[in-house]
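Cross-posting from the modeling subforum.

Setting up a comparison between two proteins and wanted a second pair of eyes on the formatting. Protein 1 (sequence, then structure tokens):
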Amino acid sequence: MIIDRTGWTWEYVDEQMDIPRLIEMNRYWRAHPPVREMVQAYLGIEIRDDRDAGGSQGDVDGLIALFGGIGGRI
């Protein structure tokens, strides 16, 4: 979300961003949403939340169990 909203690179975010800054940026964006998001809301375009696109906790638990089952240490 930071990269999408700011145009920064992954490297810049990795070097410059920390949790307190992220919290403040999110607080600001809640009070002052980016224009793109306001236009989407005005036009009724649903904003997707893909934060769980990488899998569910069940998927992670299954992977850990599989890893342990083949002799890996957790």
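Protein 2 (same layout):
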Amino acid sequence: MNRFSCRFQGELFFRLTERFKQAYTETKKGGETMNQKQLSQCCKTIWEASELRFKEKKSSAALADFLEQEGFTVERGIGKLATAFRAQVGQGRPVIGLLAEYDALEGLSQIAGVTHPEPRPGYKSGHGCGHHLLGCAVAKAACLVKEALDGKSGTIIVFGCPAEEGGSGKTYMARAGLFDELDCALTWHPSSINTVISGSYQANVQLYFHFHGVASHAAGSPHLGRSALDAVELMNVGVNFLREHIEDSDRIHYALIDCGGKSPNVVQAAASVLYLIRSENNEKASALVERVKQVAQGAALMTETTLEIEFDKACSSMLSNPVLENVLWKAMQQTSLPHYDDSEKKAAEAFKRTISEENLYLGMPKILRRYPELQRRYLEEPLCTWIVPYEHSEALQMGSTDVSDVSRVTPTAQFNAACYCMGTLGHSWQLCAQGLSAPAWKGMDYAAEVLKTAVLNLLDDPQRIAEAKAWHLEKTRGEKYHCPIPEEVLPKTNY
């Protein structure tokens, strides 16, 4: 497809999206009292701002302002996090938390609706994980519950949670005790399929390794220099050799933060690398961190440089609650799935053609491999029009989320709702490009309805919360939550 036809397709995409949003808003008139038009604008504002961890000023304000105007009592800057907030409605028990996110990803700037990689002029970041949809669906769900409370006992709290991507905002919030008041917590995540999320996720630790050497003329006096960049490179080589001797559940990633300068004729006196280290649980992650630290110390010895290690953030492994998973599964079945017209399917097919057949298959969720018919539909159809059968699992999933730290404090569960063509990979330009599409809006609406139904079901049957608490108590053995981020470590905005 040439660039002109891609441009035309992008324009068609926007016309379809705007037409859907107008029709969507009109269908809500006279029904819900919530300001749907304002919520849609809020979602677009967050997508366009594409703010990174702990810098989500516009995004956080947009959601907090919306909820405040809808009658929620809003407290901003909670837990000493400038872009975190707490919005409450109702009174009495149970106290149910809904977790909203709104941060973007570095390096994923992308023009919406265009089926090739093309960054938005003036932007380096983008919503390659759909958190603009995540936060707005949570806000809508809370408003729908508010309208249906009708004197029922129960408190709903929306937590505006910054910095899920690379910042572990919820971990800092958990450390501050912000989730201690909850009886349970629910959330969701945009995806290309509809499914209850089950299983554990990796704990992780993120650290900066700063090497300090001595600058010198690289030709005239190289013997006087001590290269910090050499130390970074040797550390990376050493860690790459370490990979042979770690467990299958371990992952180690790194990014060069400071290469020491742009002149090859100067021995670099300072260089830094950022490492993200994952393992099955907090204890194993901490042990792997110590091994990586030893490699870094060895690199410093080899280069006669000094090493400074700076703790950035961490999060725990997941404790997904099967009682609440069943509540979400029932709510998903009770909620009508979105219907897609031919133009929406055609647009989704255009994006699906940008995903290689190999990546489409390798990126398939493992649970689908047990259902040949669903596997076929995943590979062949553009959009998900079904719900994956629910199966509770405690198997480890590769990846991490700071929702895990909430799950260590209170019973927690989450689900996926389809917002993108099937096969769209997380943290990809394709996902970012579909972020304002009609299927994305419809998936967000479906997620809000599921959350609303799940919360109302819990309010009508508080015994389910008691059962969820009993399971949580058994799994944690009654031990108090221990935050993997040391007390003295503060959130960093200079990412």
